[in-house]
User: Fold this.
Amino acid sequence: DDPGVRNEHWMQHLPDSLHLSELSIPGTHNTMAREGVLWAWCQSLSLILQLLMGIRFLDIRCRHFRNGLPIHHEAYYQNADLADVLSTSINFLEAHPSEIILMRIKQEYKAEGNNMTFLESVQVAFEEFPRERFWIKNQIPSLRECRGKIVIIDDFSGGLSGILWGGGNIDKEDAWQSISA
Assistant:
C-alpha cells in the first residue's frame, strides 16, 4: 500500500532555532482508526506510510483495558496498542533523526478491568523505550531541543506533564465533519 509520495525528511531544512509554535504541522485525526464499521474508519494508510508522507502530528487514542493501552476508535479495537505506536514512531525517528513527531495521547472509550490509573499505564508503556526519545515537558520546544523525539501532547486527566492539549499554549484545528452520501 505504497502511496508513491514520500516526504519523510521535510523538517531537515528548517532552522534549529525555530520553535514548534512557529510551524504548521500536518497531522491526522484518529491516526490509527482503520478498523470497525465504516464510520469508525478515519485513515486508509498505515502509521509508517503516514510518517513517510510527512504526517508529524499523531492523534493516538487508547482504551484503558486491563492495565493495557489498546488503540481504539470508540468501541472499535484498531489491532494495535500504544507500545506498537511508540515502537513504529521511534524506529522512524532513528532512520530520520532530523524529524519530530507530535503525539496527542487521549483516553478513549470505557475503562475496564484496571488496578492502575491511565497515567500509570501510560508511564509503564513509556518505560519500554529510551527516555531521551521523548519530550515530556509543558513548554513549546525549539527544533534543536526536540529533533529525533516524540513531543507528547497530554490530553487526559492525571497528566503526563507533556504539552497540555487544553492548556492554551497551542493552537489546534480539531473540527471534523462526516461526509454522507
In short: The CA atoms of residues 16 and 145 lie 8 Å apart. The beta strands are 27-28, 57-62, 70-73, 76-81, 101-107, 134-135, 150-155, 163-164. The first strand starts at residue 27 and ends at 28.
